[in-house]
Design brief:
about 170 residues; mainly alpha; Regulator of G-protein Signalling 4, domain 2; 8 helices; about 60% helix; RGS; G-protein alpha-subunit binding; GTPase activation; RGS10 protein
Length: about 170
């Protein structure tokens, strides 16, 4: 018997992990968490409490920077990233190796991957440090609980299940 391949909306073979949503998906990898706007919001909330929100903000700024077109825009964005996260006077300074050797001269010839090494460092810092704590945090666990309650809400259940729940209280 020939079974057609099941594809997602974009023609990629669908796999089970694509059906995961919300906290289940966030828990599979930091990459999945960072792809979900709600996940980013919750992770930022957590990092703010840990006084390390600048890490995810820097990572997001670098992702945005890679999409920047035009030398002038790249120079402006690169300078913004440098001044916000990397300069010694930065308001939200991230802690990356080789930072002391960074100077504004790199901003004169910007290219999409100019921050890649630093972004990777921050990603690994988050992945092996704050991400695992995030998965144990109240912010994550409460969000997970509210998701589970929504899934088990009366609208999501059959009348029979509802009836048995009402009579078994």
């Amino acid at each position: 018997i020939f079974l057609p391949e099941i594809n997602d909306g974009e023609g990629h073979p669908s796999s089970s992990h694509q059906t995961l949503k919300g906290t289940s998906k966030w828990a599979t990898s930091l990459e999945n968490l960072l792809e979900d706007p709600e996940g980013v919001k919750r992770f930022r909330e957590f990092l703010k409490k840990e006084f390390s929100e600048e890490n995810v903000l820097f990572w997001l700024a670098c992702e945005e920077f890679k999409k920047t077109q035009g030398k002038k825009q790249m120079q402006e964005k690169a300078k913004e990233i440098y001044m916000t996260f990397l300069s010694s006077k930065a308001s939200s300074q991230v802690n990356v190796e080789g930072q002391s050797r960074l100077s504004e001269t790199i901003l004169e010839t910007p290219h999409p991957l100019m921050f890649q090494k630093l972004q990777d460092q921050i990603f690994n810092l988050m992945k092996y440090d704050s991400y695992s704590r995030f998965l144990k945090s109240d912010i994550f666990l409460n969000h997970k609980k509210s998701e589970e309650q929504e899934e088990n809400s009366p609208e999501a259940q059959t009348a029979a299940k509802r009836a048995s729940r009402i009579y078994n209280t």
